[in-house]
Fold this sequence. Notes:
Layout: H1 14-22, H2 27-35, H3 41-45, H4 53-65, E1 69-75, E2 80-85, H5 87-90, H6 93-106, H7 113-119
Antiparallel strand pairs: 1-2
Amino acid sequence: MGYLMSSFKRSSCPVANLLEIFGDKWTLLVVRDLMMGKQTYKEFHESAEGIPTNILADRLKRLEKEKIIDKSKYQDRPVRYAYKLTQKGKDMGPALWAMVEWSNKYIPGTLSAEEIKTSLK
């Protein structure tokens, strides 16, 4: 049976649709940071992977548009926002941790979930 086309960008394939949201180098790293307790633009920018500021701003906007995150203003001058995962974003957690487990099994030297939590603090 072929994939049905409707309001989907490419097809109704769940993997293709997930990749439309999370399928770039940076988006899952932002979600990872949120799951580890980071909330501010500065905290995301300080992550070891060194996401460029223009890409970080774009990914935060895209995640908000997809209702993966919410933002709330915590400072007026200059305006600054805190970000948090919505339930939709939190529901990505098991898939993200499955990737961690797979990496630990097949990519020698990768950090465990506990080591990730420690390294992000």
